[in-house]
Amino acid sequence: MYPTSAENGFPQLREYKRLGVTDTDGYQFRCSDSMRLKEAQHMVDKQKADAVAHELMRNDFMKGEWAEPTLACWLRYECRCAYCGCDMLQSRAGAFHGYSLDHILPKGKYPTLERSEWNMALACSLCNRIKGRWDPNNCGEPLYTGEPLKEEQVQELIGRASDYVKRKDLDPRFQQLQSAIRDALGSLAK
Ligand SMILES: [Zn+2]
Fold first, then answer.
1. Which residues surround ligand 1, an ion (CB under 5 A)?
2. Cβ contact 28:139 at 8 Å
3. What are 80's strand-pairing partners?
4. Total Cβ atoms within 10 A of residue 25
5. How far apart are CA 122 and CA 85, in angstroms?
6. CA of residue 187 to ligand 1 center, whole Å
7. Least CB-packed of 19, 38, 59, 103 within 10 Å?
8. Contact criterion met (CB below 8 Å) for 136 and 102
9. What is the distance in A from the centroid of ligand 1 to the CA of 166?
10. Is 39 in contact with 47 (CB distance < 8 Å)?
């Protein structure tokens, strides 16, 4: 939660407030407004991704690396983080250590969706961490009402979460910390 006592020192925070953004459990913003930063990540058809994953798993070099459903999820998201779009396959670190299969609707709040494939998105570990338990179904019109979601609904939820993650990246507290540490480094070098 942003410290309200400090908000006057953070112009960005005033802008968030003007837009109706708050960083509490009741986080809200106008998903369709002009501040929207990114459209939802393109998703490959699930059946196609499953079929290609199945073929790839026949190669010896794939064995013991990823499970087939994990590989299918990678292919479905074109090996990019669903929220920031970074290429997860460009380095060994990203491919083996920097990824997560994110529950689009958080499993703590929706335990029955823990194993639902439509609820899993490929995400870099940073976006996964920033998104945390934030619930995109609680922002704007609720799309999940107990029935499995259609692909365009999943993409809408991903778009909401992507906006949330990007706004968190603009965290004014971090910008303040960053410039203070850079100043301190500069004084150390003198
Ligand atoms: Zn990311």
1. 81, 83-84, 124, 127
2. yes
3. 87
4. 10
5. 10
6. 33
7. 59
8. no
9. 9
10. no
- Its pTM stands at 0.72
The one-letter code for the residue type at 31 is C
Map out the domains of the chain as residue ranges. 37-41+77-184
Closest listed residue to residue 37, CA positions, set 29, 45, 25: 29
User: 8 Cβ partners below 8 Å, 6+ apart?
Assistant: 14
Q: C-alpha angle 70/113/1, rounded to 5°?
A: 95
- Both tokens of 182, joined, read 């850079």
Q: List residues bridging with 119 in a β-sheet.
A: none
Contact 102, 128 (CB under 8 A): yes
CA distance 178 to 190: 19
Distance 76 CA to ligand 1 centre (A): 15
Q: Tell how far the Cα of 56 is from the centroid of ligand 1, in angstroms.
A: 25
Tell me the pLDDT tens digit for each residue of 38-92: 444 578 989 999 999 999 999 998 888 889 999 999 999 999 999 999 999 999 8
| Residue 93 tokens, joined | 């670190």
The two three-digit tokens of residue 32, written as one number:
């369709």
Short-list 163, 157, 73, CA closest to 123? 73
The answer to whether 87 and 124 have CB atoms below 8 angstroms apart is: no
